[in-house]
């Protein structure tokens, strides 16, 4: 199970949403963020690579200036309302 966190320039958000929709990624949380830190991404689940490429492409690819993407492994997820755990809770 993977969680992908992407910090993108506000003016690229619409493009990122469209790109994610094209690769059938529909769940996301959007919030304002200040400051950026360096981080490494790691793939390993089938949806990770197309998700990362969609975000990168929408943010300008090699033109740069689009933001950072962090991929983290989740040990567990719990849906508070139902008590579901693991992938079903996402």
The biggest beta sheet is recorded as: 2 strands, antiparallel
Q: Name the CATH class.
A: Alpha Beta
Approximate shape: elongated
The proportion of residues in beta strands is: 15-25%
Radius of gyration equals: 14 Å
Please name the defining characteristics of this protein.
2 helices; Alpha-Beta Plaits; about 25% helix; alpha+beta; about 90 residues; single chain; two-stranded antiparallel ribbon; elongated
Describe the structure.
This protein is an alpha+beta fold and 90 residues long. Helix content is 23%, strand content 16%. It has one domain (2-89): Alpha-Beta Plaits (2-Layer Sandwich). The protein has two helices and two strands, in the order βααβ. Helix 1 packs antiparallel against helix 2. It is elongated. The N and C termini lie close together (10 Å).
Short summary of the structure?
This protein has two helices and two strands; from the N terminus they run E-H-H-E. The chain is α+β, with helices and mostly antiparallel strands.
Please render the helix and strand layout as text.
Blueprint: E1 2-8, H1 13-22, H2 48-58, E2 67-73
Antiparallel strand pairs: 1-2
Helix pairs in contact: 1-2
